[in-house]
Amino acid sequence: MIAIPHKAKQFLLVLVKVLIVGLAFFYIYQHLQADKAISIESIIQYLSIKEVLILLLFTIANWFFEVLKWRNLVGSFKKISFFEATQQTFGSLTASIFTPNRIGEYGAKMLYFKPENSKRIVLLNFIHNGSQMLVTTLFGVFGFLLLTFSKTETMFWIGIKLNFISIILFLIILTIAILILIFFREIEIYGFSIQKIIDKIRKLDRTILLKTFSFSMFRYLIFSTQFLVLLLFFEVDIEISIALATIFTMYLLASILPSIHLMDVAIKGSVALFLFSKLGVEDWKILTITSLMWLFNLVLPVILGSYFVIRFKPKTAE
């Protein structure tokens, strides 16, 4: 095996860092250039400095619980500081925004730990993301039910249709999951099997799992409320209960569609347009709101994460 000189390794690491940050900002720039929904005039008209600060507080709270969730899970085998958890959370976000469904986050977080902990980090990150998906599903189903029993006739029929589609999808996914559990439970892929994953999750402290679920729920309620607040800021005339039901439904539908995380705004924007347009909400307002959510909850964290990526130093085995 050819040994790579230390200086060459350092140069390659710097090159990879610059490439990751460069790609992240290129994608953001490309989206901002293509997004005709973001009108500076309309934003200035509806958002004062006070309201921008309120939105920033929601963003800080959102990512505060995301960092807490990761620190809590890593604490199952190693104590890390809040700052270390922040570095790992935002650094891995920046490295994964141009990978499908944030798959790059798994590899990025592994680099913050010694190689012998790689499998454990993959499992913890799976629980980390899985808990958020579970909360999204629970609230999404609740949103479906609210729409179904809504007094608004249009939303009633949307709720019926979405419930029908969701039931069919649920039955298909449940059937596939049962078949996998029956026939492929013991099959290992890269050292992982369904049975091993289940066994390892069972071994985790229940308090850690409960905290993980709680942090996921707090985070979900925060960014859902942030979306609702933006609807109010843009003077959208809509009942709070219907608005929340539609937001919950939007997040569930958007989460089950495969996408590159950076393009998440396009997915959420199209789903939001489909749902809110039935309530008579102007298209430009919904597109502007989804774009602002993207700016506050992805672009700003990526800017912070870029700093951590540049300062990143990989762990080595002892």
Automatic annotation (TrEMBL):
Keywords annotated in UniProt: Membrane, Transmembrane, Transmembrane helix
Segments traversing the membrane: 12-31, 43-65, 133-150, 162-187, 208-234, 240-258, 287-310
Protein name: Lysylphosphatidylglycerol synthase TM region
Organism: Flavobacterium okayamense
